[in-house]
Structure formats: C-alpha cells, structure tokens
Amino acid sequence: MTENRPTDGVVRVGLLGCGTVGSQVVRLLREHGDDWAARSGAHLELVGIAVRDTAAERDPWVPRDLLTDDAEGLVGRADVVIELIGGIEPARTLVLRALRSGATVVTGNKALLAAHGPELHAAAEAGDADLYYEAAVAGAVPVVYGLRESLAGDKITAVLGIVNGTTNYILDEMATRGLSFDQALSQAQELGYAEADPTADVDGHDAAAKAAILASLAFHTRVGIDDVPVTGIRHITAEDMAEARETGHVMKLLAVARRTVSGGTEGISVRVHPALVPAAHPLAAVHGAFNAVVVESESAGRLMFYGQGAGGAPTASAVLSDVVAAANHKVHGGHAPRESTYAELPLHGPDATAARTQVQLRLAHAPGTLAAVAGVYGEEGVSIDSVRQQRSADGVAQLTIISDVSTEAALERTVARLAEEPHVHEVISVTRVEGA
Amino acid sequence: MTENRPTDGVVRVGLLGCGTVGSQVVRLLREHGDDWAARSGAHLELVGIAVRDTAAERDPWVPRDLLTDDAEGLVGRADVVIELIGGIEPARTLVLRALRSGATVVTGNKALLAAHGPELHAAAEAGDADLYYEAAVAGAVPVVYGLRESLAGDKITAVLGIVNGTTNYILDEMATRGLSFDQALSQAQELGYAEADPTADVDGHDAAAKAAILASLAFHTRVGIDDVPVTGIRHITAEDMAEARETGHVMKLLAVARRTVSGGTEGISVRVHPALVPAAHPLAAVHGAFNAVVVESESAGRLMFYGQGAGGAPTASAVLSDVVAAANHKVHGGHAPRESTYAELPLHGPDATAARTQVQLRLAHAPGTLAAVAGVYGEEGVSIDSVRQQRSADGVAQLTIISDVSTEAALERTVARLAEEPHVHEVISVTRVEGA
C-alpha cells in the first residue's frame, strides 16, 4: 500500500464505466467533495473516467475532459479505482491489475465477485490492497458493511434476504393487485423495473450471486454462485398468492443462507427460492422494488437492513460510502477487512438442510384420504404444523399442508411418495416456508 | 495513540461495570476471542473488570480473579476501555481519563453522551483516541455505524426512529389488544420490559438522549439532550389507538431529526413525540420491544435499520462490534471517525419546523360548524389533507382533521384558535403525523 499512499491528503479516483450509476457517482463526487474533505481531511480528486465511447452523449455534469478510452492507463494512475463496467471482462482484468498494484478497488459487480471472488481477494492480499463492494448486494442497503464490520463481534446463524427488486416488485403486484406473473412482468418492464430479457432476475440468478456474497461474509467461508441451488418465480400463480394470504403469509423470493449441523459437523446451506413468509415477519412488509436483508445472530438476535436495492443514485450512494472509507484509510492508515475464510465450513446438502414446506394437493374426496396423506408425512418423520382442506368446484378436495421444520431430503421424499399415492390426483405446488 | 499501540497483536481490554450487559460482554469475549484473533490478528485480552462490590455473586463465566474495585487503576493499564457503568459519575471522569491517555473507549452510555458529548469528543481529540458508542442507540441495531461510516458518502435529510423498546412495547400492546396505557405499562413492568419507575422511558427522556446522538451524527452538528423538545406517551388512550387504526395509521413514539430551511438558511429540528405513521410505512411493522431507525438521504433514499434495542446479549453484541473495530485499529492502524461538527447547523424552532397533525374536535352539530373550522385552517395557511366527521352518542359531532405539511408554529396557532371557536366544545387531541 505504501507506494499508493498519498502524502498530501489528495486521493486520486479513477472511474471505470459511466452508465446510470457511474454518472451519479460523478455528480456526488462533485457536489459533496468539499464536505468529505471537511469531515475527513481526504480530498477526492476524480482523475479520469474510462468509457468505451468518449464521443457519446453524457449527463451535463460529466466533465468531458476527464473521459478516456484508456482504462488500463487510468488504473495505473489512480489510488482508488471504482469499477462500474459490470460483467466479467474487461472488468476482471482491470480490477486484478489495480489490486495487485496496491490501489483500492470499489466495485458494484456482483457477477464478478460471485464468479471470481477468491481470485480478487488473492490479488488484494498480494497487493496489500483493499476491496470494497457495498453496492454489489442490495444497492444502497449497507449490509456488506453490517456483515463485514458491524457484526464482527457476533456469530451469525442465518441470513434471509429480499435482494432482487424486480422480483419483489412482481410478487408485490401479484399479491396486492391479483395480477398474473405475466401481467406483473409486463408492467415491471413498462416501468423500467425489469429488463427486456428478465431471465437473470426472474429465474433467481441475480439473487444467487448476492446469496453467495452474503454467505461468504456471514460464515467466513468461500461460497460461489455455482454453490447455490436456485428456484425462480415464473411458476407462481395468482392462486398461489391468494392461498398465501389465506394462510397468513406473503410470498417472497428469498436468498437464504444458514448454519447447519450434520452428524455433529457444522456446515452451511445456501439457497434461493420463493418462500411463504408470515405476515408479521419484517420481510413481509418489504414492498415494491425495495430490498431487505434479515440477519439472525447468536447475540444480537434478529437484525434487518432495508432500503433501495437498485437505481442510479442509491447505488452510487453505496459506492461513495466505500470510496469515503477507502479515502480515509489512504490518508489516515488502516485498511478494510480482508477476505475472511478461516471457518471453511462445508456446504451441506439436503440431508442436513433444515426446511419447512407448504404442499398443495388435489385429492379424491373419499374416506381414508387424509389418513393416507398424513401417514406418508409420519412415515418420513415429518411432523405437520397445519392442514386446511377445502372442497373445490369440481367435487374433489384440495388440501394445503404446512410442515414443521424437517430436512430438505425428508420433505422431498414425502412429496415424491405423495405423488405416487392413489388418492392424490395432483401435487399442485410445493413452496418453502421461512421466517417462522 | 502511539503509546497505547500494542506491538505484539495483544489488545488489553478493561471492563468497567459487570451488570446484565457487562456480564454478556465477558461471555462473548471468552467464547469468540479465538475467532476474532483468526479473523483480524488482534488478540483481545481481558485484563480486569471494575465493579463496586467484588464479593457479589456473578455469572459463572465471570473470572473472579479479574474483578477489582480500582477502576482508575484498570483504566491506566487498558488499550481499550469498555464503559458500562451508566449514569454520569464516575463514568464521566473515568472515560475522560482513558481518552486523554490515548485509550480507546467503547461505551453504551447514552445519558453521558447526550449530556457531555462535546467534552468527551474533545478529550478524544486531545488524546488522539477513539470513542465508540454503537450500544448507546437502539441496542444491537448498527445505526451509529450506519450514520457515522456507511452513509458518509451521502447527505441525510431526516432520521425517524423507534428508539425506545419499552414505549414501543406499550403502544403495540395498546394497539393490538386494546389495553389502556396503565394496563399496558403494568404488563410491561411484570414482564421486565419497563422499570418500576418508568419515567425515563414513558416520558420520552431516554428517546431524547438517543435523538440528540442521532441528530449529531446525521447532521454533523452538536445536539445535546436539552435541545430536544419531548412529549411522552402517558396521555395516549385506547380510543386514540382505535381512531388511528380507522384512519390507516399506527401510533409510535418517534425520535425525529430533520434538515429544515428558514429564510434561506439551512438548519435542523430535533423532536421526540408520539406520531401517527401510515400502516404501510416500514416503521409501522416494528412490533414489541424492537427498535428501528429510518434514515432518509438525498441519494440512498429511504434506509431502515431494525433490531433488538435492549437486553444483555444484543447490547453486548453492539459493544463487541465496537471492540473488534477498535482492536483492528490498534493492531493495523487507522482510527474511528472523529466527532464531525463542521456543519454547525442552527437548531430551528417551530417557525421553520415542518409538521403535520391530526386534530380531533368535539363540535356543536349545527350549520356552519365545519365551515368555521375549515376557515381557521385556511386563515392560518394550513391546508387540509383529510376530514372525517362522526356523530357521537351524545349528539354532538366528532371531527378528525389531518393537515398537510405546514410549520409547527402555524399548526399551534390553528389549534389555539380552534379552542376559542364558539362551535368547538373541546379539542380532544392533537397528534403528529409522520412518515407520509
């Protein structure tokens, strides 16, 4: 770090990428630079903005003389590099180069972190450099800070997050207006909450990258995106939402990371899936495109961090909080917490992962039916929390069963056997229940 | 700081006070010390626990050989002093001595901070020492961290907090079970959520100390507890709660700090009072003894920090997060953010403080009554958001008027004039409305 430590209180900031977030970062640097200098003694000087097309139109506050198409050159002359290009390359190469040379990197690139985290952290270690990524998870919500620094004195047992605003908006519209998934998706696209190709959001991949980052921080263990089994929200129907309301729940797409125990060994499980959350749980009150992350820890108990998960200004605010911290360290010494993987907990599979489910069945309306279904649960060692039976219009019965906590494996076996039961016409849905 | 900077990675921790929180701090230090060392390279060594009565019974994990009644001596040999004595003296003298000698102080003492903050910060400055106080506001909720470090890149416009668990528990019980204030208070006392003398909580003084600390951090301006006008919750009735539900609100005791503008000059206002919060606002979903602080900022938008506001283990968790940060700085360099008062914003009075109110009136049921009431609002320049009129059992009308945003001064003049109106039998209640 010594070579990049400024001696005059001036911290040279290089910005890679000037899209929606980058442009807001430029605005905030210009508007608040003097304030930060007054507070911390660190003068942030924006020394360049690397973009693909230096001739393209920009917001009026973006100084054209700082634009450059030489990203590598810019990395070479910055104390702090803000990476907002997104995607893997050239972001990966530029970030590695910056870290190895001792420059601090501030990034919002969740895909890069979830796919190449260990390589980035190793480069930071090698260059004695700091890597910040508050903006990579839940936008403006300071949950990376919370997990990495503020909860450093506690033992975290679980993290449950609404970390994708697009899917939360869609599910919220389905729940409150009775829209179908397709209707809600179209509306989200019209309003700019969802992309033309919504795959990364609605199939849960974006949430999985964030789940991997959160789990790594919470459990001091390396978790990559490929370690996270994912279920998206495409299959959810307006009827599912209505049924959820009937049973006092709200449907949310959750990133869930938990400390688990199997055969006496501690491990973790990380998942992304839709889940029914009790209406009184704080995550149930997270509406629209907002994000929130609940952290359960041994001593602090339940904490929640809530705020805007996306958008130019909110994400830029998270970037700038990292830049200000980085600048303070450059001027006053100290450094960001380094990657912490000392725990190296194994990833546990379905046999060790605790879960609850709601199962909806269509059944023959005949004597012995409920006994047969309940028998399957009993034989698999899964106890039942609640049962609701209704006669549907076509004369057959519809049964909704919420289990107690069991293992994923036992719950999967239960559903497989239910599907084979002669009385069961159809397994309509199987949905996780969280947050009880 | 140099003289107190350990060279061997061992950080000597001295604990002042060993009550509910202190005892949990001892437990966490013993249980997690090795984990923290693995993460940060800082070995925390508890070198002494100062208590008034060394012979008194203690939790089994408290090592008796560390107990001492020589608090001053302990302060002299610690790198990090944890102050959990509470109250003003001897806490103030000990904390000042520690800071002036360059030791880091971690305290949960909101009364001391709100009454003697400037003196403590000056001592920290003089000793080049760090002062941490996460546990002083909202227990385990990392809002001091959030305001002091994480939002350092943004401009905060308002802070609204449920920062007293006792009053939130009482109001929640009144709202959900229809209890009177006295019934809910008795229940809180039986369950240990309220003290035998509940004055500090129910009259809002505890919340006012926290409001002063939050406002100082949010607005980089010195605010003491005497700067905070306070209204408690003793006057709130079961009828008020029922009426709140009717209009889609929930009653909460809030600490409110806002950036204000008067005659072109920026300033701030800081208040503690009960307020009606819309049912969809995230603060409305904060139940029981939980705390939550909403921060509104220019770029990040609305953030909320939520969690347990009191209790031994949650408060100890907040203390330990500060201790771990302090130890990292002791070993790796850097320091906590110093007091930031560069903004020195003036405290604005009722003329510049924006507010909304709900006013409930009992009126003669006669022609011209509503026109007269509405006329008063109009003449004071206060516009009306909603009106609800009901005929009560005794034949007179009851009117509930929610105003738009105006100034406190205009709203007070409006109520004073309404009380003089011949048609108005009684001003039943005047309640603030927040969070719209």
UniProtKB/TrEMBL annotation, chains A, B:
Cofactor(s) for this UniProt protein: a metal cation
The record's listing under InterPro entries reads: ACT-like_dom_sf (IPR045865), ACT_dom (IPR002912), Asp/hSer_DH_NAD-bd (IPR005106), HDH (IPR016204), HDH_cat (IPR001342), HDH_CS (IPR019811), NAD(P)-bd_dom_sf (IPR036291)
Q: Name one GO molecular function term.
A: homoserine dehydrogenase activity
> Where's the active site on this chain?
K210
Write out the entry's keywords from A to Z: Amino-acid biosynthesis, Methionine biosynthesis, NADP, Oxidoreductase, Sodium, Threonine biosynthesis
Q: Which reaction does it catalyse?
A: L-homoserine + NADP(+) = L-aspartate 4-semialdehyde + NADPH + H(+); L-homoserine + NAD(+) = L-aspartate 4-semialdehyde + NADH + H(+)
Q: Which PROSITE patterns match?
A: ACT (PS51671), HOMOSER_DHGENASE (PS01042)
Q: Which residues form the ACT domain?
A: 358-435
Enzyme Commission designation: 1.1.1.3
Q: Which EC class, in a word?
A: oxidoreductase
Its UniProt pathway annotation is:
Amino-acid biosynthesis; L-threonine biosynthesis; L-threonine from L-aspartate: step 3/5; Amino-acid biosynthesis; L-methionine biosynthesis via de novo pathway; L-homoserine from L-aspartate: step 3/3
Residues noted as binding NADPH in the record, renumbered to the chain: K110
Question: What is the stated purpose of this protein?
Answer: Catalyzes the conversion of L-aspartate-beta-semialdehyde (L-Asa) to L-homoserine (L-Hse), the third step in the biosynthesis of threonine and methionine from aspartate.
What family is this protein classified in? Belongs to the homoserine dehydrogenase family.
The protein here is known as Homoserine dehydrogenase
Lineage of producing organism: Bacteria, Bacillati, Actinomycetota, Actinomycetes, Micrococcales
